[in-house]
Design goal:
Elements: E1 9-16, E2 22-32, E3 39-49, E4 60-65, E5 75-80
Parallel strand pairs: 3-5
Antiparallel strand pairs: 1-2, 1-4, 2-3, 4-5
């Protein structure tokens, strides 16, 4: 039996929840600039599957990698980070 790679888990803030069963999560990372050595923030948006449409803009959520659900959705919401 082959060992599977662990799925990535990210946490971020819901930026948009206009679509049905889909939310957009903005995940912010802090990185050091290669040339200037200054710490900067980078934000990337991920489309995540929200089955019950329970999350709204401003909520903090955790998302986990999954098999592709649609063209853009490759993540699922696993929990509300404030509850944990």
């Amino acid at each position: 039996m082959e060992a599977k790679m662990p799925k990535r888990i990210l946490s971020g803030i819901v930026v948009s929840s206009n679509s049905d069963k889909t939310i957009t999560v903005g995940v912010t990372r802090r990185i050091k600039h290669k040339l200037y050595k200054k710490i900067i923030r980078q934000t990337k948006k991920y489309h995540a599957h929200d089955e019950k449409n329970e999350f709204g803009i401003g909520d903090t959520v955790s998302i986990i990698e999954s098999k592709p659900i649609s063209k853009l959705k490759k993540w699922k919401v696993i929990s509300n980070s404030e509850e944990n």
